[in-house]
Amino acid sequence: MSSTASGKNGTWRNWGGNVSARPARQVAPASVEELAAAVRRAREDGLKVKAVGTGHSFTSIAATDGVLIRPHLLTGIRTIDRAAMTVTAEAGTPLKRLNAALAREGLSLTNMGDIMEQTVSGATSTGTHGTGRASASIAAQIKGLELVTADGSVLTCSEKENPEVFAAARIGLGALGVVTAITFAVEPLFLLTAREEPMPFERVLAEFDQLWAENEHFEFYWFPHTGNTNTKRNNRSAGPEQPVGRLAGWFEDEFLSNGVFQVAQWVGRAAPATVPAIARVSSRALSARTYTDIPYKVFTSPRRVRFVEMEYAVPRAALVPALRELKAMVDRSGLRIGFPVEVRTAPADDITLSTASGRDSAYIAVHMFRGAPYQAYFTAAERIFTAHEGRPHWGKVHTRDAGYFSRVYPRFGEFTALRDRLDPDQLFQNNYLRRVLGA
Ligand SMILES: Cc1cc2nc3c(=O)[nH]c(=O)nc-3n(C[C@H](O)[C@H](O)[C@H](O)COP(=O)(O)OP(=O)(O)OC[C@H]3O[C@@H](n4cnc5c(N)ncnc54)[C@H](O)[C@@H]3O)c2cc1C
Fold it and tell me: Which intervals carry biased composition (Polar residues) (predicted)?
């Protein structure tokens, strides 16, 4: 995947192309000391501070007109502790580098999202997740964190050390300090068998509880304007390894899922009336397949077609009614939606502002091709999700504010009180945080 946020003419832009900012200055510290000095200097100069990952968030959560801290010199594995089964990575390490390094050591994370371009700190700061029956987001796999706080000092936290910081800072929204290193729980490298299979929408909904209960990782994509889905079931396997063949992999993952899909999106954007027909063809293009490989090769795949996304977590029990309402809304509207809707799950976790905090959750993600008008679709979808007390992904488009979050997150006040203690002058503030956390 071509990279992310660009810095042309001093302008920073996110991957989706829907957010840009002009920071007063940009720095790329190569050590924790350099980073702490950059934070202190910004403070002396009266500038706000924002650390950024690879700009894969669709919200303005990473935007700043102050000092932008770039991640690329703070990368790599610091330590591997085989007794504790943990690995500590520098905050700017891309997930793909972490995954490859772990695999070389015979280790793996337990669960991950759809892609691995993001940095470890950027991904965890917004609660990036995959799908899981018992295994939760990437942040839920964190065992310890090191961060530079607003006064330029270094703070470490874990379940035992500063536990109130640990509870919140694993998904810290960039509001509590600049993360400099993350310690993850790891396990011995294992194999996953993926079963991808088209299935009618009505059947997936009727059998959803069973599909979820019978699989360690269940997800599906529904194609609006059709009654078709593609399902994916990933389960641990004793082997043998049976990776997708190179030619078949290229054909399905590159040619169909990226190349042909890109062309279909161009056509649909230029002539929206063709979208339902394209959706019917797209939804039938991929055939059933089964393969067995190491985790990151099963969980993640390249996403080259650029899009804008909104994703909400609803209580898992609300998934089926919420999806029925979404389908009914699309069917009766004049909307033309060329991108599939992705559905995943997560078990309840104990992180203060995790979208799955304290409740078993299902995620519904709606997407639009970059450059196609998305507001009407996202507004209508958001109305459905919020009626089910949905919690939006912190890094994906939404319009919610602090008043709403204080209602759907029982521990919201705990997070803002901690932010006020660690960052009383709001050095890490930006417009997004002002909206979602309140002044
Ligand atoms: C193609 C694509 C696929 C995606 N797939 C998934 C998916 O499967 N599951 C999912 O949940 N999400 C997914 N996302 C969303 C994405 O994972 C999140 O938005 C993630 O936060 C992006 O990470 P990043 O490294 O680009 O961080 P950025 O977007 O650059 O920053 C995100 C936040 O992290 C903060 N941050 C970054 N570094 C630090 C640091 N060192 N200290 C403190 N704060 C920091 C920033 O200030 C900002 O608040 C996807 C996005 C795209 C574009």
Answer: 1-12
Residue 39 lies in a domain: no
Residues 336 and 299 in one domain: yes
* SS3 letters across 234-270: EEEECCCCECCCHHHHHHHHHHHHHHHHHHHHHHHHH
Pocket test for ligand 1, best of 52, 111, 232 (most atoms within 8 A of CB): 52
The verdict on 152 and 283 lying in the same domain is: no
Question: Can you give the pLDDT at residue 2?
Answer: 33
Is the pLDDT confidence value at 1 over 50? Answer: no
Distance CA 348, CA 140 (A): 10
Q: Which of 6, 125, 141, 434 to mutate to test the pocket of ligand 1 (most atoms within 8 A of CB)?
A: 125
Same domain, 216 and 342: yes
Whole-angstrom distance, CA of residue 138 vs CA of residue 20: 26
To 10 degrees, what angle do helices 319-332 and 375-387 make? 150
Of 166, 188, 210, the last residue of a domain is 188
Q: Please report the atom of ligand 1 found closest to the CA of residue 1.
A: 1
Q: Is the CB of 415 under 6 A from ligand 1?
A: no
Interval between CA 190 and ligand 1 midpoint (Å): 26
The DSSP letter of residue 119 is B
Distance 375 CA to ligand 1 centre (A): 22
Whether the CB of 367 sits within 6 Å of ligand 1: no
Residue 261 confidence (pLDDT): 73
Q: Band the pLDDT of 272: cuts 50, 70, 90.
A: confident
Residue that terminates a domain, selected from 188, 210, 234: 188
Does pLDDT of 4 surpass 60? no
Residue 30 lies in a domain: no
Q: What pLDDT is attached to residue 208?
A: 98
Phi, psi of 211 (to 5 degrees): -60, -40
Instruction: Tell me the best of 27, 32, 57 to mutate to test the pocket of ligand 1, counting ligand atoms within 8 Å of each CB and taking the most.
Output: 57
pLDDT tens digits, 138-177: 999 999 999 999 999 999 999 999 999 999 999 999 999 9
Domain count, the chain: 2
| Residue 8 pLDDT greater than 80, yes or no | no
Report the pLDDT averaged over residues 380-402.
98
The whole domain housing 374 covers 194-392
Both 286 and 161 in a single domain?
Answer: no
Residues 177 and 224 in one domain: no
Residue 230 and residue 359 in one domain: yes
CATH number of the CATH domain containing 171:
3.30.465.10
User: DSSP state, 216?
Assistant: S
